[in-house]
Amino acid sequence: MANTTASAEMLPTESSKQKQLKSLISKYGIYFAFIGLVIFMSAMHPAFLTVTNILNIIRQVTSIGLIALGVTIIIITRGIDLSSGSVLALVSVVAASLAQNPDWHAKMYPSLPALPVIVPILAALAIGSLCGAINGAFVAKTGIPPFIATLGMMIVARGAALIYSDGRPVSDLNDSYNFIGQGEIFGIPFPVILFIIMALISWILLNRTRFGKYAYSIGGNEQAAFVSGINVAKYKILVYTFGGFLAGMAGLVLSARISSGQPGLGNMFELDAIAAATIGGVSHAGGIGTIQGTVVGALIIGVLNNGLDLLNVSAYWQQIIKGSIIVAAVVFDMRKNARKN
Amino acid sequence: MQSEVVLDMQGISKSFPGVKALSDVQLTLREGEVHALMGENGAGKSTLMKILFGMYTRDCGIIKLDGKEVELNGTLDSLEHGVSMIHQELSPVLHRSVAENIWLGREPVKGLLKLVDHDKMWADTKGLLERLDLEIDPREHMVSLTVAQMQMIEIAKAVSYNAKIIIMDEPSSSLTDKEVGHLFEIIRKLKGQGVAIVYISHKMDEIFEIADTITVFRDGQYISSVPARETNQSKLIKMMVGRELNKMFTREDHTIGEDMLKVEGLSLEKRFEDVSFDVKKGEIFGIAGLVGAGRTELVETLFGVRSKSAGHIYIKGKHVHIKSPDHAKKNGMALLTEDRRQSGLSLMLSVEDNTAVANMDSYVGGGNLLEVARLKKEAKEECKKIRVKTPTMTEPIGNLSGGNQQKVLLARWLLTKPDILFLDEPTRGIDVGAKAEIYKLISMFAQEGKTVIMVSSEMPELLGMCDRILVMHEGRNKGILDRNDASQEAIMSLALQKH
Ligand SMILES: Nc1ncnc2c1ncn2[C@@H]1O[C@H](COP(=O)(O)OP(=O)(O)OP(=O)(O)O)[C@@H](O)[C@H]1O
Ligand SMILES: [Mg+2]
């Protein structure tokens, strides 16, 4: 029996070289598109390619980017999370209420002493994770579609945020809290550092732990994952919990950046996050997607927002352009998958 | 006098990234013949047929239908040219009727509004099914049919296109002997009507029963075409694997030890009842019976895929409550499932991940991180051991040939080093050479004092490998035959015995 495994002796013919090029382009298409976009924007506007502006872009996409990291893993399991924008809002008002300056006249808890910053941080992450865990539990234990489970959470969490804050912003937050959104370390904005760390952690989770391998496996074929002895329910709950955790973190970052928790915050962020993941090549059929793709997807959204602003494109047109790009990205992705055959 | 050539394919080549699936192969098909296409897993049989059916485009070569050169771009093109295909994996629309499945996408319409003409559809379907002697109600939903019936519907669909050439890619892999008999009747009938049939199968006895001509491929190359009458099994094997295969079944000396698994009064509602048996260390234990006897359900219940309604399970003398496959795995069990699409493969994931997925726990190292290098190494070694043919370990498994996918699933479970290995139709779609390899692995596994429990519809496999064989019929244990008493007749008479 000749070549049992790799057929290395087969020299690439002319046509297979072309094919290799094609597959290279389709594999790394998103990165080429990103580079192209950056070159285009730089040519169009001198202020685009400056360190300040680049950091600014990344800072602006961190909230969406953090959510996108979580939703990437969720979509890989063939799920979806529509609740993250609302969870972000809920987290922002609760965390802010624990971080207000003691002498502020409109303080939510007038008798509350100044708390160490770790308290609102832990509260934020705990609430985010809990919302995610509830999403996951419904998806895993009742079998209702993730779309419905997280749609419910989207509405409930927004409602909870409004009730908690009585519909008003929670403002005048202390400096150590604000640092999360406004601080810098060695000239790099803290949110950017946070985003990079979380992207790395997500990458490790997805590629170097059982959690990630099982996420792919569940999305690839849930029944097969179950029969292979994977505790599907447990891992689904964990995946949604991680998504909620990141939404919580996004809530911290955003409220700290604007120094205020607001029940209306993060409106439609879940959709931008899903768009970032989708542009980055995550397949809604499950089992396919990468963190690096999603990061680039988020950056593309950031560059578009920023660049179109610089070019004075009206906000209305920006929506049309963004929407078209998302659909185009998916069409490209489908074609790439279809071409395999 | 030979009948007319209906199809002539010459010089066909096809490459996928990293694989030359076909290089310069040929195939000539005559009117009214059954033409068997044979070769090892990954030899390129399905690929050639997908080219003929317009699913893949060839890199080069000529296709002539009825003497005229044609281009086949897409399946509609092929259907129009009278070529039809029944796939290795069926994909019916389950919750629609038989008739709707047959006429899907070309429903007869009537009137101005082009409403679907259901009456005509029922009538046409009825006529079609009668023509093939199929007793199936056109209004029945696909879900309520057996796999065999679904297959027959696929054939009826092919006939409904007035196909002159029907390709059948491993049509018998999930059929019982009786159903295969029925399939052959239909094939003979079609043959009488002048239809040419390409028949792909790894089952030798079938080939010699039905085929007129046999074409053999090896590693993407054409080896030869011979009339079935002028060859025999061993010649054919030699052509396929390129060497003699002296022994099909290996049975190393193995000592049968103490109890490994003991099952008492196990039941699953409506599927099987009161099944008891025990299996020893080092034993190869077979489970025989017709399709529908409850064999798959039995092993699935033992493995925790389904929850039992009554009974007790003991492993090494310890009473266990298996609640899930996860749990079964922790108790040293492994199950190679029958249906690889449904409950085996994640098609878009790599060969490597598909191999390692059940064994992740053992790769968890410091900081809860996976030892990826070791994972890669072990997955690769295991695949190599059973000769999985793949360009790289990162290839999506959906790109592998059917038989190679099956081998990966076996590798998956061998990697977990189980004490008890359940195999449900382990050699389905696997070529002869690889079969012999797998039997050898099974035998070595038993030799190490482990237990194998094997469900199979292939009698020779059970008779050749097993120490004892449990025969089931309609969810009941009909008796356990010792190796020395077991024979095809003994099994059948137990399997068909009324209470
Ligand atoms: N879509 C694809 N992409 C990449 N490689 C493919 C694809 N389809 C088939 N191949 C490769 O082409 C070769 C031939 O595969 P093919 O399915 O034709 O084999 P086969 O003879 O039908 O085998 P089996 O008996 O196992 O079904 C294999 O090495 C397979 O991995
Ligand atoms: Mg095949």
From TrEMBL, chain A:
It is found in: Cell inner membrane. The chain crosses the membrane at residues 28-48, 54-75, 82-99, 119-140, 147-165, 185-206, 237-258, 315-332. The keyword Membrane applies. Coiled coil: none annotated. It is a multi-pass membrane protein. PANTHER family: ABC TRANSPORTER PERMEASE PROTEIN YPHD-RELATED, ABC TRANSPORTER PERMEASE PROTEIN YPHD-RELATED-RELATED. This is ABC transporter permease.
UniProtKB/TrEMBL annotation, chain B:
Residues 7-244, 255-499 form the ABC transporter domain. InterPro entries: AAA+_ATPase, ABC_carbohydrate_import_ATPase, ABC_transporter-like_ATP-bd, ABC_transporter-like_CS, P-loop_NTPase. The keyword Translocase applies. Keywords: ATP-binding, Cell inner membrane, Cell membrane, Membrane, Nucleotide-binding, Repeat, Sugar transport, Translocase, Transport. Its main location: membrane. It is found in: Cell inner membrane. Coiled coil: none annotated. It is a peripheral membrane protein. This is Ribose/galactose/methyl galactoside import ATP-binding protein.
